[in-house]
Design a protein that fits this description.
With 266 residues, the protein is α+β, with helices and mostly antiparallel strands. It is built from 3 helices and 8 strands. Strands 3, 4, 6, 7 and 8 form a 5-stranded antiparallel sheet that branches.
C-alpha cells in the first residue's frame, strides 16, 4: 500500500535581529527551495534565497541579518511545484543594533504616494495664488505711479499757465518805459502826454494804445415839456418859433428875396 503524499509545509520561529533561527519543513516532493520575502509583497520577490534542501523532513539554520521591525515571510517550493508559506514574523531587536543586510524590500504605500501628490498640488496652487497676487499688486503700484505722474504734470502745466507777477512790477505799468514799437516811442502813460518824449514823425506812427481817446459829439438835448404841452405842439412850435433869433432869421430871408426881385429885368 502506497504512502500518501501531503502538501509541503514550512515553519518559522520568532526572529531576533542578528541572531540565528531554525526553519522546519517537510512533506511534498523533495528537494525544496526556500526563500525569504517581505510580507505584503504580492510578487514575493526574494530578499534572500537559502541553499536547496533535500531532507524530508528537514531543519535548516538561518541567520537573521535583518534589522528590528522587518516583517518577513518564508515560502517553500518543492520539486513538483507546490508552494508553502510560513506565518509572517516581525524581527525583534537583539543585542546588535545594526545588521549587514539591512531592511527587507519595502512595499509601496499608495496612501503615502497619494498624500505626496495632493501636497504637491496644494503647494503648486499656493505658488500660483501668490504669483497672481504679486502681479496684481505690481500692476496696482504701476497704475498709482502713473496717476501720480499725470497729476504732477497737470499741476506743473497749471502753474505754467498762471502768469506770475514779480513784486517789483507795479500794478500800473503804463509809466514803464517801452523801447519797442515804431518811431522809438517812449511811453510815460496814456493820458500823461506831457511827459511823453516824441521823436521826429512819431505822432504819425503812434500805436493805438498811445493815442488819446476819441469822443463823439453828443446829440442836442430835447427841451423839457411845459406843463400841459404835448410833443406835437412842441414840434409845431419849433417850426414857427417866436424867439428873437427866429424873427431875425425870417426878416433876413424876406430882405434877400426882395433884393432878388429888384434885380430881375423889367
Amino acid at each position: 500500500m502506497a504512502v500518501p503524499r501531503y502538501g509541503p509545509y514550512i515553519l518559522a520561529p520568532p526572529l531576533t535581529s542578528c541572531e540565528p533561527a531554525y526553519l522546519v519543513f517537510g512533506q511534498g516532493t523533495p528537494p525544496y527551495s526556500i526563500a525569504v520575502a517581505g510580507t505584503g509583497d504580492d510578487s514575493f520577490s526574494p530578499l534572500e534565497t537559502l541553499p536547496t534542501q533535500s531532507a524530508d523532513p528537514g531543519v535548516v539554520k538561518w541567520h537573521c541579518d535583518f534589522n528590528a521591525g522587518a516583517n518577513l515571510t518564508f515560502y517553500l517550493t518543492d520539486a513538483s511545484g507546490q508552494h508553502a508559506y510560513s506565518v509572517f514574523r516581525v524581527v525583534q531587536p537583539g543585542a546588535v543594533a545594526q545588521c549587514p543586510r539591512g531592511q527587507p524590500k519595502k512595499q509601496s504605500h499608495a496612501g503615502a504616494i497619494a498624500g505626496g501628490v495632493v501636497g504637491g498640488l496644494v503647494v503648486l496652487l499656493a505658488l500660483l495664488a501668490g504669483g497672481l497676487w504679486y502681479v496684481r499688486r505690481a500692476r496696482r503700484r504701476v497704475r498709482m505711479e502713473e496717476a501720480a505722474a499725470r497729476d504732477a504734470a497737470i499741476a506743473a502745466s497749471a502753474r505754467l499757465a498762471i502768469p506770475i507777477r514779480s513784486e517789483s512790477v507795479k500794478d500800473d505799468d503804463d509809466d514803464t518805459p517801452m523801447t519797442e514799437g515804431p518811431a522809438g516811442v517812449v511811453r510815460a502813460g496814456t493820458f500823461n502826454l506831457g511827459a511823453v518824449r516824441f521823436t521826429e514823425d512819431s505822432l504819425d506812427h503812434l500805436r493805438a494804445i498811445d493815442r488819446p481817446p476819441a469822443y463823439d459829439v453828443p446829440p442836442p438835448c430835447t427841451p423839457p415839456l411845459a406843463s400841459g404841452e404835448t410833443p406835437a405842439a412842441t414840434t409845431a412850435a419849433a417850426g414857427h418859433s417866436t424867439s428873437p433869433l427866429g424873427r431875425v432869421g425870417s426878416a433876413a430871408s424876406s430882405s434877400a428875396r426882395r433884393d432878388e426881385i429888384d434885380e430881375l429885368p423889367r
